[in-house]
## 1
Amino acid sequence: MPESRSTAAGRSLLAGLLVCASLDVAAATLTKWTGGRLPALKLADADGREQGTADWRGKTVVVNFWATWCEPCREEMPSLDRLRKRLSNKPFEVIAVNVGEAPERVARFTRDVPVSFPILYDRDSATAKRWQVRGYPTSYVIGPDGRIRYYFVGELDWSRDDVVRTIEAVR
């Protein structure tokens, strides 16, 4: 009997989470992107204001796909915030894309874990699918020219010096 779409998606998500949980955060490093172009991104924040890749031209941007129920995502958020603050004097931005959750749920999370970067909402997970997100968190480093340079699947300490140097070198 064929597996239902939701069961298959659940198993895929579980496999992605297990991969994330097994990564050594201290030894992890960004991976060069060789996957070609990904689709443009245009999503709304909790107030309905849309932002997208076209708005970030000229900046290096980390786009992080995450969910509040994902423990590695929750652990990673403070380091993304430290990275944004550390690079605040440069043309740089962090954008968090929450996948599949209501803004109210995310607001409860950010009361406990405040962040200074924008959070956009992919309520139907369509953007995550187009961006080939296979586990959470998944992050992409986009250069000022709009091309993806690096990606990472799993929890990463974005405030580590080697990670910051890699991001600063993106031109």
Note: Residues 1-25 have pLDDT under 50 and may be disordered.
## 2
Amino acid sequence: MQDVSAGVTEQLAAWSQGDSSALEKLLPRIERELHQIAHRQMRRERPGHTLQTTALVNEAYLRLVDQTRTQWRDRAHFFAVAAQIIRRILVNYARDRAAGKRGGGAPKLYLDDVAALSDHGPNELLALDDALEALARLDKRKSQIVELRYFGGLTVDEIAEVLGLHPDTVTREWARAKAFLRRELMRG
């Protein structure tokens, strides 16, 4: 695994330096992981969701290759940015769907565990996004941890690496962030 991560990191660095052939070499290495992240995320969506995993991966990939100013530090950094992009795609999709429907307000959503969200429609995702934005205003780092964990599927150790924290800190902040989001969603 270390060799694979190192190879990805080297290709990301070369791509950041303007080597377009590095992107071609990198694509097969990252495509599978992007697909896994998107698949995990789509499993949380309601049955019959019209956005397909492959479409989500393709959209995320197009946005990632547009990241010409990003200096990729390593594989974890790349997938952290991918998680943010996937979140934006899903939230924008949910907003578009919700805007097309009548009725109002997101229903209350009880969040026993952020990762346990499943079978919910666009309003619930929008409620989660609003709660996450509220968390970001109070504590950007906790918001980043949720985004990386929930939308990116990164492990505690990977999040610790991306954010330069000890894994125990990530675990504590993840628990506090979930408690905050649970309260926000119950108020919704």
Note: The CA atoms of residues 5 and 75 lie 6 Å apart.
## 3
Amino acid sequence: MIRVNGETIDDSAIQHEATAMQNLMAERMQGEDPAILQARAREWAEENLIEAALLRQAALAEPEPRGFPAESSLESKEQLRLEALVNRITSPAAMPRHKDVVAYYLKNRQSFNEPEKILVAHIVKNVDESTSEEAALAAIERARDDLAAGRQFGQVADEMSDCAGNGGELDWFARGEMVQAFEDAVFSLSPNEVSGIFRTEFGFHIAKVLDRRPAGVRRLEDVTEHISRHLLEEKKQKRLHQYVDNLRARAVIEREEVPV
């Protein structure tokens, strides 16, 4: 059991947090001695809960922000006050300078190495308990005929695909992320090339390759936004950790062993 400025964190809460952390650590630290994992998870769980208690106490000691919904529950109000405090602490963090982004990219260049990726739009007619093989095939053939007549791929996808929306466009993906039959069909296409009808375990498809990205280190301009967000988050976390460290320096933290 731990007391933080008189607030009790009971052992059941610590055990619950430690179990969640141990499961996560076991995935990332395979082969580590289970006893060491358990001890470390317990230690980190205690630290997390102490810091959470200090932040919550600090938030409740602050004046209530304006505009709180009157009908909010006590728990909701506490959460809103905590969010307001964290925002006040972290909001002064400035966006990183371009030279800092460049320096991070150069230092961590290999972390931006990616396999070949492909951007694809597709039209699919599913074969399932409500749609027979014959019905799905007939529907995808109508979509093929519309494309042959000159209609835009995205229009046909939005109107006729069982996965409509965004012109049928999928996110960028590499080999190994889709079912094999789909990958076999699309990775053989060139940019702007449209496939014929092909079958996967889901049903019938027509696909169009929108773009391809070769394997290699991604360009700085492609990852600038990602790096900027990462560096900004680091700055925010640093400010938050410094604030919690100051709270901790003034706090009364007592540990008490629970009898077995």
Note: The mean pLDDT is 92.
## 4
Amino acid sequence: MDKQVKIQIQNFNFFYNDKQVIFDLNLDIYANEIMAVFGPANSGITTLLRSLNRLSDLNPAAKVQGKILLNGKNIFDTDVNLTDLRRKVGMVFEVPTPLPLSIFDNVAFGPRLNGLNSKSKITTIVEESLRMAALWEEVKDRLDLPAFSLSGGQQQRLCIARVIALNPEVVMLDRACSGLDPISTAKIEESLRDLTDRFTIIIAPHNVKQAARASDTTAFILMGELIEVKKTNDLFNYPQDQRTYDYITGRFG
């Protein structure tokens, strides 16, 4: 059975004022897969991720050309509701960003903001989200403690749970494991694999090895240009472009 395309990026160009940082990029992202998008610093990867839910709009110098289709609908159409888009396409950032609230209230924050008042439903959502983020067993007896009492790795998984609680369609992680120890990183990668049953996941991995371990498909971007995209095993074992080979073997980057 053919895989469903969740996001289609078509002839996408991105500028900060007159400086172009993404060049005529075309990329299909398939539903219920993990897509890794990687490349050296200053390749436009964070900009690309922030464009997928239009967080890039927050920068007044930003200008885009081309289309990004979510479920066939161009996210740049004038009738797109940005709040709804950012609920559907959630983002977990490089540095954990828990709210100055309890563990429970961090996860409940989004559903409450969306008007959910039922205590029992919120409690269910909090538990399910924490379970999916592989954090429930570690915090279930201290949900009323401040989120900042958690370790860095736990805080990052809490941020994943907070995104999941909004029932998104796509979860993006921008180098979300870069500051974490190997054990915390492994727990997050494990939970991501389980989450593909419900979500499409896009990661900007913090290193080449994470892309190889954690993704189904990998796209290599260099200086804003898509160089190569393949199933992850094929890209690492049979890269077609010399630049891809040089990057994954550590010759630059």
Note: The mean pLDDT is 93.
